[in-house]
Amino acid sequence: MFPQFALTFLGILFCIGDVAVLGVLLTWQERGATPDVRWQRLIRGVLPATVVLLGLLLLAFTQLMLLWSSK
Prior knowledge:
The protein is built from two helices and no strands. By secondary structure, the chain is mainly α. The protein starts with a helix and ends with a helix. The chain crosses the membrane at residues 6-26, 46-68. Keywords: Membrane, Transmembrane, Transmembrane helix.
């Protein structure tokens, strides 16, 4: 029972960290000096990283649901 709670806590921490990284990425993109720089940051950095981070977030949620559905 304890490992289940520990894994849940780690999963929640991972999700919070994931959302924080998404916020940092979007802030970094918005701080570009010109609209061209912001567009390049969006296309080359933010969108690919967002796809990866949202995929990891979905995987974490799925694993947490599977962890609790077995009991």
